[in-house]
Input
Amino acid sequence: MKFDLLRTGASSDNNLIPMINVVFLLLVFFMVAGTLRASDPLSVVPVESVQQQPLTLPLSLYMSADGTLMLDGAVIASELLPVVLTVNNENTLANDTKLSLALKVDAQVTVVQLRGLLKSLRDAGVEEVELVTNWVPASSP
Amino acid sequence: MQLDRKTSRASAISLTPLIDVVFILLLFFMLTTQFNQQRALTFKVPATGNTPTLAPDNQYLAVKLLSDNQVMIDGNNIINTNQLATDDQLLAAHRLQLNLILDADDLVSVQALVSLTDTLSTMGFDHVILRALR
Output
């Protein structure tokens, strides 16, 4: 009788093993296939593009659909952007490198807003910008 | 018999705490993982005002994106964006390896502008220049 009880106890654990296998498989899939990334400080839906250049610069400037600007995690008025960027970039200038930054702009931002932003960046001496995009596969014609 | 007792002790360790932990890890990774791939478009910030950086006009073809999916080519020819790939002027410009100067109406979204550069790059225009800021 005792022997029987032990057996049933062991077999109830044995029934769990296939489930654990599946859960482990899912766990490994999510750990390997996905990337962990800090969430954006501002809600921004980036532009979709089929072009495939990698993002090389650290993200620093965000612009949401309503035109709110965020630089290094802090909301900033667009008039102050050239001043702050110039101060930030003084070290970079000393290193004699080209000023560039990565920019994440909401897809619904209008061209006139973007122009204003680019003008501020230009005034601060930024010459090159990486616009962050979400890669989408090219639709077949 | 002794061997039996040993196995019974080993199986007394329950698997439930392990499953709990694994489920928590699984939930964590499912909720934090992002699958969308971040890429970037690199472009030069256009010069402001009166910096004369452009070579003579015949080296360039002006393309302006208007609202409601219309594109104006060379200041007069207005076509729809889905006709770009068959436009004679653009095909000729590609043959002559002209650069394109891109401009857009104020209220066009950045997405529309990027989609236009996508179309142009698939047509083989690698050098698209944003028009100088006014």
User: Anything to note?
Assistant: The CA atoms of residues 74 and 91 of chain B lie 13 Å apart. The mean pLDDT of chain B is 78.
